[in-house]
Amino acid sequence: xxxxxxxxxxxxxxxxxxxxxxxxxxxxxxxxxxxxxxxxxxxxxxxxxxxxxxxxxxxxxxxxxxxxxxxxxxxxxxxxxxxxxxxxxxxxxxxxxxxxxxxxxxxxxxxxxxxxxxxxxxxxxxxxxxxxxxxxxxxxxxxxxxxxxxxxxxxxxxxxxxxxxxxxxxxxxxxxxxxxxxxxxxxxx
Length: 189
Hints:
Largest sheet: 2 strands, antiparallel
Number of helices: 5
Strand order of the largest sheet: 1-2
CATH architecture: Up-down Bundle
Distance between the termini: 57 Å
Oligomer: single chain
Strand content: 5-15%
Order of helices and strands: EEHHHHEEH
CATH superfamily: Cobalamin adenosyltransferase-like
Shape: elongated
Radius of gyration: 19 Å
CATH class: Mainly Alpha
Helix content: 55-70%
C-alpha cells in the first residue's frame, strides 16, 4: 500500500529504516515543515500567474531540502542535501529590494487589509513557529551509541528559516504598497 501501511497506528513513524515516536523531536519538526510547505501550496493555488507563485515554488523546493536534512540528522554517517548559503542570500536580496521599494515604517501592523497580504502574514507566523521548533531541536540532545550528542541542525537551516519569515513579511508589505493601501497599526488601547 502506498497511502497507508497500517504500521503507524501505535504512535510511531518510520524515518529511513528506524521507528521513532510520532511526537519525538525530529518527526515534530518534519511535520511543522510539511505544514508550512502545504500552506504555501494553498496560498499559491490562489496566485497562479502572479509574481509570488514562482518565488514561493523556489521556497517550497528549499523546504524539501530542509526536510531531507532534518530527517538525516538521525543518520549522521550519511550525506544529505544541503541548504547552500546562496539560498539565504537570495532571500536577503529580495528583502532588501522590498525595503528599497516601500521604505517600511517601524512597528506592528494589523493584518487583514487584503487577502494576499493576510495570507503572507499567516505564512510568516507559521514560518516563525517552524523556526522556533528547529531551534529547539538544535538545542536538544539524543543518544548516539551510548553518548549524548546534540541534534546537528545546520546553522544555515536556522538562518534560512529566519530569513524566510522576514521574506514573507516583506512580501506582505510589498503587496500593500503595490495596491496603494494603508495598514492600520495597533492602538494598544
